[in-house]
Amino acid sequence: MNLYFYASKIITPLILPSNFFIFVLIFFFYLGILKKKEKFKKIFCLFFILFSLISLLPLGENLIYYVLEKNYQNSKLPKNIDYIFVPSGSPERIVQAIKIKNHYVPAKVKIVYSSGNAALDKKNGQDSETPFVKTIIVNSKIDKQDIIFLPNARNTIENFKQLKSFLKHEKNKKILLVTSASHMKRSLIIAQKYNIETQGFPSSFKSRTNSFSLVNFYQNINIQRNLYYFDIFFKEMLGIFIVRVIL
C-alpha cells in the first residue's frame, strides 16, 4: 500500500492530461517546429488538435456526468442507517452529512469522519480540512459526541481501511457514504472490496445537466475549467482501474 501511495503521488502530476499535453506539446514543438523535423511536426499537430478539443469543449464535464455522476442524480436517503461515513477531500461532504443528521435521521446515528493528509511531505503538508470541520461542528446544531474522527488517511483506500478497522467489533452495520458524486463510484467499489455494506448519497455534483444550448455553451467557454474537469475525470477513471486491480 505504501508503494501504491508514493507511486501514485509521484506519477500523477506527469500523466495528468493538462500537464501531459503541455509537456508533450513543448517537446514536439521543439523537435517539429524549431528543428523542422517533419515526423515530429505531424505529432505536434495531432496533440495540438486533441489539446484544443479538450480545452475548448466541455468534454470533461460531459464525461463526468454520463460516466460518473448520472446514476446518483436522484439518490434517496435510506430509511435505516447506523453511521454516516464522510471521507476527507471536500468540505461540502461534512456539511451535507451534518444536514442529513440534523434533518433526516434518528439522533442516535453518528458521523464518522476520516481525516486525511495526502502530501508526500507530511511535515510541510497541511490538513486544512480538519480544522474547517471542527469549526463547522462548533457552529452547527451537532454535538461533539455525535462525530467520530478516524486517524489520518492518505487516500480513499486508507479512508475505508480506517472505517473497516473502526467497524471490526460491529457486525451488519449499514453505512451511508457521503462524498462527491464524481467520487462515488470509486468509493463504493472500495467499500465493496472491504465488505462494508454501504449506500451512497452525493454531497455535490461537478457536472451541471445533460441539456445543451449553443448560446449557453459559448457564454460558458472556460479553458481552465474544461481542463480541470477533464483532469478530474481522468483521475477518477484511473483510480477505479487501479482499485479493481490492486484490491
Model description:
The protein has 247 residues and is an alpha/beta fold. The chain is built from 10 helices and 5 strands; from the N terminus they run ααααβαβαβαβαβαα. The protein has helices at residues 2-15, 17-34, 38-56, 59-69, 91-103, 129-138, 156-166, 181-193, 214-219, 223-246; strands spanning 83-87, 110-116, 147-153, 175-179, 198-202. A 5-stranded parallel sheet has the order 3-2-1-4-5, sandwiched between helices.
Q: Can you summarize this structure?
A:
The chain has 247 residues and is α/β, with parallel strands linked by helices. Helix content is 56%, strand content 12%.
Sequence-ordered SSE layout with sheet pairings:
Elements: H1 2-15, H2 17-34, H3 38-56, H4 59-69, E1 83-87, H5 91-103, E2 110-116, H6 129-138, E3 147-153, H7 156-166, E4 175-179, H8 181-193, E5 198-202, H9 214-219, H10 223-246
Parallel strand pairs: 1-2, 1-4, 2-3, 4-5
Q: Numbering strands along the chain, what is their spatial order in the largest sheet?
A: 3-2-1-4-5
Which oligomeric state applies?
single chain
Globally, the shape reads: elongated
Number of helices: 10
The ordered H/E elements are: HHHHEHEHEHEHEHH
Portion of residues in beta strands equals: 5-15%
What features would you highlight for this structure?
single chain; 247 residues; alpha/beta; 10 helices; 5 strands; elongated
